[in-house]
Amino acid sequence: MEASTFQHKTEKPLAARITPVWTANFTPLDRETRTHVDTETMCWHLGFATQTARLWACKETYPEGLKPIRVNGRLKWPVAGIRKTLGVA
Questions:
Q1: Is residue 18 part of a domain?
Q2: Which of 49, 65, 66, 76 might form a disulfide with 36, Cβ 3.0–4.6 angstroms?
């Protein structure tokens, strides 16, 4: 009877197998030249989930100075309001 050989498949560590879902390059706030940015950028700077920002816009409960405008159905957030919220204005 032949001995069966079991070859262990070498796998990469878990961290190497996971591809980042959200990898984007954001302009630092001190170098931002636009007057308004999209929801993802605003949330990245403030450290909130995008759904939180959408809820703020829906219920109009955003921080003072951070009132978004709608452009073709998309939210655009004022950079000045982001700076004010962070206290770096």
A1: no
A2: 76
